[in-house]
Amino acid sequence: MTNVSKKKLGITELALRDGHQSLLATRMRLDDMLPICEKLDAVGYWSIEAWGGATFDTCLRYLKEGPWVRLRELKKAMPNTPLQMLLRGQNLLGYRHYADDVVRKFVDMAAANGVDVFRIFDAMNDLRNVRTAVTQVKSNGKHAECAISYTASPVHTLEHYVELARGFEDMGCDTLAIKDMAGLLTPTSTRELVLAIKKATSIPLHLHCHSTSGVAEMVQWEAVHAGCDIIDTAISPLAGGTSHPATESMVAAFAGTEFDTGLDILALQDIAAYFREVRKKYARFESHVTGVDTRVFVNQIPGGMISNLANQLRDQGALDKMDQVLDEIPRVRKDFGYPPLVTPTSQIVGTQAVLNVVSGKKYKVITNETKGYLKGMYGRPLGTVNEDVRRLALGDEEAIHVRPADLIAPELDALTREVGDKAKSIEDVLSYALFPTIALEFFEEREAGTFKPEPLDMPAEASSVAQPASAPGLAPTEFNVTIHGEQYHIKIEGSGHKSEDVRPFYVKIDNVLEEVMVETLTEVVPTADGNIDTKKASKGSKRPKARKDSDVTTPMPGRIVALHVEMGSKVVAGETVLVVEAMKMENPVSAPESGTVTAIHVAIGDNVNPDECLIEIG
Fold first, then answer.
1. In whole angstroms, what is the distance from residue 310 CA to residue 583 CA?
2. pLDDT tens for residues 183-213?
3. N or C: which end of the chain has fewer CB within 10 A?
4. Distance CA 440, CA 422 (A)
5. What is the Cα–Cα distance from 346 to 356, expressed in whole angstroms?
6. Are strands 143-149 and 175-180 parallel, antiparallel or unpaired?
7. How do 175-180 and 205-209 pair as beta strands?
């Protein structure tokens, strides 16, 4: 087992993973991590969490960084501190269950590339779904930490959590974690839970809690006094809001007590000064939940999930329905047997709630992941599933009761053949296994040397705002706007390109950077006498609007990841014709009527919107 340094109170630093995942949409780049690694490595943390969670997906999808390269570079830069990752059991870092051979190989390669501490959890708290990963971590001589996904519901009792803790210890875990991803613990419930688990088990206990509800510092104080051995914190510039208690604050709180961490507050403040400047670079990705939000005690929605929901609704022009979605989420969760809301169940429940609200009818549109969940493909829910909802999703298909991975044949060899020479290593094959479409794009861009990381403040090509050459000065770039007596300072920092008639503008409103999507309805045209006129903009080629009942449309904005028909295909009403990825969930889109495919207006990889006709059926 990896030698993990022992302190009176251990501290795991979250700045390189969950801190920026919670507050900056996981967008921090490796280039902004490496310069501070030497100082982080010298602090004496119990561990530094730097990989796993959403970082793998984000590296491939947005940052155009090799996630395995990131891991190796961080380990090289911090050789003295155990490097920790978050692993979703049989889900690994993706959104489905993978075969045991994929799970074992992933753990092997994560260990070989630098992970020392594996925090392993299952969204359903189904012990069957973590056993393979735990066994493989131990076989690699690494530290296995199992995590209880904490939630509150009529079926999640203290006795249940104690039973889980005993089960994890029996499995051979080195430490046990309480993972309070939404910030639901209170000081009283924490003391009760920690005392009960410490009484029932003999391995060290680790607490991970978010600051969303405003009581996390009190929760950690009570936990430590009740016997908790290690706590998770984030350096202060990346703390608070939907993130975690500040590292310096908790170190100071326990200084001079029997739980003194032994960490140097001045060294931590030096590190904080660095991250204070780094955070400014990521203003575009700032979470809107930077303070206390006690609504989480009712809706139990993790902060990252709230921002996802807001973005999805904004894309559909339905942001005004956010309150309806927040009300719908607890109802969907009850229908699903009260799963804890953590990846991937938070995305499954959240996306289904959005579809229920936007479509105007409950379960009119059901995602593939919802169908898989209700079939039992994510594990066993603790509560009772609404059988009417299950029948809507599955029809006559029976739910399963075995461990989901028992139904998945070994797939590593098939995946290796499938990706072919596009993969240059076993790590590439594993990336493809987790995110096929995104990984292939990444491999192609890597091969061609055409990586274009998502811009920070604005696209590189948008250093100035384009203006009509025939009308210099026509469009001001800085001005004041007065609305209902309130004045706002507006400065247009730049613009990008999305399509011929829709483009993003990057605008500072009272010095806060926003992205504004502008659809051109008129264009500037020089007249014969040298003056300026306007006319309705001529649109470039784009998909037709959906007008007929037989037109196939998407229920929400997303990206085409599968196309199941071709020109001339015969389809029947209800048959899946394509799949749209939205909120990292796959949404099957079915034919509204039976007939023949007469036109296809999309290809795999296209971004699509609800009002567009994607396929015509005649």
1. 11
2. 999 999 999 999 999 999 999 999 999 999 9
3. C
4. 8
5. 15
6. parallel
7. parallel
Alpha carbon distance 411, 402 (integer Å): 19
At 476 the pLDDT is: 65
Neighbours of 535 (CB within 10 A): 9
* 420 SS3 class: helix
Tell me which H or E stretch contains 49: strand 47-52
Cβ contacts of 309 within 8 Å, gap of 6 or more: 301, 322, 325, 326, 350, 354, 583
Question: What's the CA gap between 433 and 101, in Å, rounded?
Answer: 12
Task: Strand 570-571: give its sheet, edge to edge.
Answer: 570-571, 595-600, 615-617
543 residue type, one letter: R
Residue type, 29: R
* pLDDT tens for each residue of 407-463: 999 999 999 999 999 999 999 999 999 999 899 999 999 999 999 898 887 444 444
**Alpha-carbon torsion, ordered 71, 74, 80, 81, to 10 deg:** -70
Neighbours of 402 (CB within 10 A): 10
Dihedral angle at the C-alpha atoms of 512, 517, 519, 520, nearest 10 degrees? 50
Structure tokens at 278: 């780094």
β-pairing verdict for 558-563 and 576-582? antiparallel
Q: Report residue 545 as tokens.
A: 């609007």
In the block, tokens 């303070």 appear at 291
The conformation of residue 9, written as its DSSP 8-state character, comes to: S
CA distance 219 to 524: 60
- How many CA atoms lie within 13 Å of 355's alpha carbon, on the beta-carbon side? 29
Q: DSSP of 89-106, one letter per residue?
A: GGGTTSSS---HHHHHHH
Structure tokens at 597: 């495919």
The token pair that represents 397 in the structure block: 């298909």
Between helices 426-434 and 67-77, what is the axis angle to 10°?
A: 120
Alpha carbons 319 and 230: distance in angstroms, whole number: 40
Structure tokens at 350: 């959240």
Residue 442 structure tokens: 């990444």
Stated as kind and residue range, the H or E segment containing 209 is strand 205-209
> Pairing state of beta strands 532-536 and 576-582?
unpaired
Check: CB of residue 615 under 8 Å from CB of residue 551: yes
Give 31's contacts (C-beta < 8 A, 6+ positions apart).
none
pLDDT tens for 513-546 read 666 777 655 544 444 444 444 444 444 447 888 8
3-state secondary structure of 310: helix
Q: Look at strands 486-495 and 478-483 and give their pairing.
A: antiparallel
Give Cβ neighbours of residue 528 (< 8 Å, ≥ 6 apart): none
Q: Output Rg (C-alpha) for the chain, integer angstroms.
A: 25
How far apart, in whole angstroms, are the C-alpha atoms of residue 553 and residue 616? 9
The helix/strand/coil state of 80 is coil
User: In the numeric block, which tokens belong to residue 610?
Assistant: 């609800």
The angle at the Cα of 300, spanning 156 to 297, to the nearest 5 degrees, equals 90
Angle between helices 247-254 and 265-280 (to 10 degrees): 160
- Amino acid residing at 38: E
